[in-house]
Design brief:
globular; homodimer; alpha+beta; DNA-binding; three-stranded antiparallel sheet
DNA sequence: CGGTATCCCAATTGATACTG
DNA sequence: CAGTATCAATTGGGATACCG
């Protein structure tokens, strides 16, 4: 379920910001391609962890937020971030990511 | 770093049991192939999370345990397991795993 | 007992271009 | 703004057989 390379980061930003639009994700995760972002958002939605709300406006607006189930992941994401902050530098990195 | 499908489970068993031999992993995770188990153990070792000790005996014996760095992952693995125990059933599963 | 070596398929990820 | 479509490359994973 956490298979996706960016899912944890997506969830992290949702815990930080509550609600995010597609373009806001793009700003927060600049090195995720549009395709991958769409892809992972849809998978998270399919797993019932986030919700997607389309506002029929011009220009279009789509908002993502955590579902109740998604919110239960807080301890996991939190533990992951804590660990990353403390120890990620100890681990061999192949490439720098979009700083989460 | 958690890319591997079985890494979290490997770490979990090490937190449970302290030290494990190759064959003990196999018993605890029957549906991981020998190749994948070796593979993921080596990656964890390369990342400095576990150590591998070979005892030059007959029959051969190899023991795996957590390094100090590996032990710092306890909160993460713990949070993950807690979540799994509570909510994994809420999520669509494609296949059952080796029960962790 | 604790692995390696091969082969092969599936899934994931990425680059780029296009669209309502 | 928020996506799709298409193609290509890489990586992950499983089956099976063999080895010191």
């Amino acid at each position: 379920m956490f298979g996706g390379k960016w899912k944890a980061l997506i969830l992290y930003h949702l815990f930080e910001d509550g609600v995010l639009r597609f373009s806001e994700f793009r700003r927060r995760m600049p090195n995720v391609t549009q395709r991958m972002l769409t892809n992972q958002l849809r998978e998270l939605e399919a797993d019932g962890l986030i919700s997607r709300t389309v506002f029929p406006e011009v220009p279009p607006r789509v908002e993502y937020e955590l579902t109740d189930l998604g919110k239960t992941l807080k301890p996991v994401i939190h533990a992951l971030k804590e660990w990353g902050d403390k120890y990620a530098h100890s681990v061999t990195q192949k490439k720098e990511s979009s700083g989460g």
